[in-house]
Specification:
The protein is an alpha/beta fold. Helix content is about 45%, strand content about 15%. The chain has a six-stranded parallel sheet, sandwiched between helices. Strands 11-10-9-12-13-14 form a six-stranded parallel sheet, sandwiched between helices. It has a two-stranded antiparallel ribbon with strand order 5-6. It starts with a strand and ends with a helix.
Length: about 400
């Protein structure tokens, strides 16, 4: 099969689970003998643009005519069987859909977040879940300045959502939702239910699983409000005030809250802030964990770190909403806490650290869950099946 992957890569300054998923899927397909091409833009390149070029970027968010012409020409020259679209913000735009139609090539789109129904794609405002724009106009997002706390910055996203709503619904043969929770939200927003299918992300086998009981509790991810970092700090302060759990908390990652986390962790012997880790270091940190903590305050569309922990035979303490409730069987493969509640999170951390035998059983169950639902083989089969369906649905060559 010949596949062209379309993706606007996120900034390399911070880790991106979406970039990782795209890279892993490309490698998986190529490893299985499929021919995979790339049509990419990089957000890193914006910094090198001239001042007028930078000023023009917001106007390209709803529609980039140059991308339409370039991609259509590429499709006519290469004649792939299917185009797989991932992120189109900010430099590609939904013009990629018009290019696919121009060349008569069917498109599949993985929905990594909620940008189809929410301008910033987070379904969150002021640290709490928000669905005010779901199924209606994106004007509330503009009024609240939901993207980067700026009304002006939110406008291009809101315009794109409104102007391209119909194009997305008619120009994509199969939408790949990364969780049932995400699909439910999109169906309620009147997206075409018959073309919304659940295809969980897969995770490569890390090649190592936890050998003993673990050495630390681990937060691995972006240091941002939506990921529950402040919630975790509040919960850990509660735990420390009651004598601790006899284990350090390791915080790995970077993001806007990094200075706040650094100040909070300074001088403490129960917290280790280790910054960004490379992939090998991430695998090792996970495999040495008693548990991975994922206290996101936004409705996660998937939760890659949870499945990475499963692959290493490590249980998770995670917020009981969004995709986490379908990834984690509470009390079997990990623990779910009340979203946004530091006391509930603290209780879950204490429970998972207090009983090594039960923790070990949960870790083994988590590994079995990974093998059955999130391995590369499972991911490859589902991906190729969806490509075949899309090809049979249309896009004359």
């Amino acid at each position: 099969m010949h596949v062209l992957v379309v993706h606007n890569r996120y900034s390399s300054a911070q880790p991106s689970g979406e970039n990782k998923v795209v890279d892993q899927e490309v490698a998986l397909l190529r490893g299985a003998g499929h021919r995979v091409g790339l049509f990419e833009r990089r957000s890193d390149d914006i910094a090198a643009r001239s001042l007028p070029g930078k000023a023009a970027v917001p106007f390209l968010v709803p529609w980039n005519p140059a991308v339409r012409r370039e991609l259509a020409a590429r499709l006519r020259a290469d004649r792939p069987d299917v185009v797989h679209i991932h992120n189109v913000f900010p430099l590609l735009s939904p013009a990629v859909l018009a290019a696919c139609a121009d060349a008569g090539v069917p498109a599949v789109a993985t929905l990594h977040n909620y940008t189809q129904v929410c301008p910033p794609g987070t379904l969150q405002r002021d640290g709490r879940p928000c669905t005010e724009c779901v199924g209606t106009s994106p004007l509330p997002a503009v009024r609240h300045g939901c993207y980067r706390d700026s009304r002006l910055a939110t406008v291009p996203l809101a315009v794109s959502l409104s102007a391209n709503r119909r194009r997305w619904r008619t120009g994509v043969a199969r939408f790949l939702c990364i969780s049932a929770a995400q699909r439910d939200v999109l169906v309620r927003a009147d997206m075409p239910a018959e073309r919304l299918v659940v295809k969980h992300n897969f995770v490569p086998d890390p090649g190592m699983t936890r050998a003993g009981d673990g050495e630390h509790l681990l937060y691995l991810g972006r240091l941002a409000e939506t990921k529950g970092v402040r919630l975790l700090m509040a919960a850990w302060d509660r735990i420390a005030a009651e004598g601790g759990v006899g284990l350090p908390l390791v915080i790995a990652g970077a993001g806007p809250l990094e200075p706040e986390v650094t100040a909070w962790a300074a001088g403490r012997d129960d917290v280790r802030q280790v910054g960004l880790l490379d992939p090998a270091q991430c695998r090792e940190a996970v495999a040495r964990s008693v548990a991975v903590v994922a206290p996101s305050t936004w409705l996660e569309a998937f939760g890659l770190v949870v499945v990475e922990a499963m692959a290493a035979g490590v249980p998770t303490v995670a917020a009981g909403h969004g995709a986490f409730v379908e990834l984690i069987e509470d009390g079997v493969t990990g623990l779910l806490h009340r979203p946004g509640d530091p006391a509930s999170l603290a209780s879950g951390i204490r429970r998972i650290a207090a009983d090594p035998d039960r923790n070990r059983e949960m870790g083994q169950a988590a590994r079995r869950r990974y093998e059955q639902g999130f391995s590369p083989q499972v991911g490859l089969e589902r991906l190729v099946d969806e490509y075949r369906i899309a090809i049979n649905m249309g896009g004359s060559k």
